[in-house]
């Protein structure tokens, strides 16, 4: 039997179960009480509960027939005007079952072309009596103004460490996993407020071991431990180029990290170094330069070693 994806297995079935997003949940509950809602725009980073809130809202409004009154589409898969003229119109023009309206949830709506967004605006106007739209996006600024003005805006924020900790501890308990404290901290460090990423990380780690430790997490996500990154930076800034280079090569071999991932972790850990703000600014500028070089197609290892050499020179000034 194929194991269920934990993100779906533990997806909240009601608004009360949604982790974090207290203000958003309270506003959505008020719509459930009145059995009416406006068109809505959910904006925020991935993994913060946008899809979960849309589904939970539909469940509470329509009960057992929610699936018949709820259409979920991903705009990044179907970006063009045809999806608006076809699937959306076909669903919107039919009467709801056991309710006054249907809900169309359009995920990653900021991926729609401008023409498709204008067609969507006209569709939203035409079917106001039979359908409500929930648009989900990472950046509300990428949605055209005529659509924004027709929607109630809900901003989803990255989840707090405490909210993520509670959820992964609940899942670990249900799945008979042992979560170590350093394992939890590693999940929180890598997930950065993205609960979906945290849950996927936990499930991937569980395939390796029933005890979820820091080492297991970092190997699963192909990221280095923060302390290992700090060692590389400290050696370089202390003028110990070959020590830093050796540790860097070990990291790339052990964790299979890409150059961009290494630079991202360098950027994150620089702020934790015991150096002046002025020095941190200079190092950030260097990282930006070498990030651009790698994106332009330069050899990753050569560029990373050249960056370490620049750190050595910066440390001597």
Provide an overview of this structure.
This protein is an alpha/beta fold and 317 residues long. It has 3 domains: 6-155, P-loop containing nucleotide triphosphate hydrolases (Rossmann fold), CATH 3.40.50.300; 161-220, Helicase, Ruva Protein, domain 3 (Orthogonal Bundle); 226-316, Zinc Finger, Delta Prime, domain 3. Helix content is 56%, strand content 9%. α2 packs parallel to α3 (50-62) and α11 crosses α15 (300-316). The longest helix is centred in the last third of the chain and has 19 residues, at 277-295.
Number of helices: 15
The CATH homologous superfamily of the largest domain:
P-loop containing nucleotide triphosphate hydrolases
User: How large, in whole angstroms, is the Cα Rg?
Assistant: 24 Å
The strand line-up of the biggest sheet is 2-3-4-1-5
> How many DSSP-defined strands?
7
The computed structural class is: alpha/beta
CATH class (first level) name of the largest domain: Alpha Beta
Low-confidence runs (pLDDT<50, min 5 residues)? none
Beta-strand proportion: 5-15%
Order of helices and strands: HHEHEHEHEHEHEHHEHHHHHH
What spatial form do the alpha-carbon principal axes imply? Answer: elongated
Helix content: 55-70%
């Amino acid at each position: 039997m194929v194991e269920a994806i934990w993100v779906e297995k533990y997806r909240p079935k009601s608004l009360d179960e949604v982790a974090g997003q207290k203000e958003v949940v309270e506003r959505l509950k008020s719509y459930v009480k009145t059995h009416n809602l406006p068109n809505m725009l959910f904006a925020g980073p991935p993994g913060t509960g946008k899809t979960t809130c849309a589904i939970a809202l539909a469940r509470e409004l329509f009960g057992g027939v929610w699936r018949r009154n709820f259409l979920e589409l991903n705009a990044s898969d179907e970006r063009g005007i045809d999806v608006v003229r076809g699937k959306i119109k076909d669903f919107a023009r039919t009467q709801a079952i056991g309710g006054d309206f249907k809900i169309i949830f359009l995920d990653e709506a900021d991926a729609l072309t401008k023409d498709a967004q204008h067609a969507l605006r006209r569709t939203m106007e035409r079917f106001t009596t039979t359908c409500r739209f929930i648009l989900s996006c990472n950046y509300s600024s990428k949605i055209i103004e005529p659509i924004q003005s027709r929607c109630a805006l809900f901003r989803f924020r990255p989840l707090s460490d405490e909210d993520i900790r509670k959820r992964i501890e609940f899942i670990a308990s249900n799945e008979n996993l042992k979560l170590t404290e350093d394992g939890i901290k590693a999940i929180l460090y890598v997930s950065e407020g993205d609960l979906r990423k945290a849950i996927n990380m936990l499930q991937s780690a569980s395939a390796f071991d029933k005890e979820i430790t820091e080492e297991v997490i970092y190997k699963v996500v192909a990221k280095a431990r923060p302390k290992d990154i700090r060692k590389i930076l400290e050696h370089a800034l202390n003028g110990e180029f070959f020590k830093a280079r050796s540790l860097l090569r070990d990291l790339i071999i052990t964790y299979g990290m890409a150059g961009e991932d290494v630079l991202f972790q360098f950027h994150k850990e620089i702020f934790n170094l015991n150096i002046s703000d002025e020095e941190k600014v200079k190092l950030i500028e260097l990282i930006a330069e070498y990030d651009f070089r790698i994106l332009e197609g330069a050899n990753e290892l050569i560029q990373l070693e050249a960056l370490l050499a620049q750190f050595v020179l910066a440390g001597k000034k």
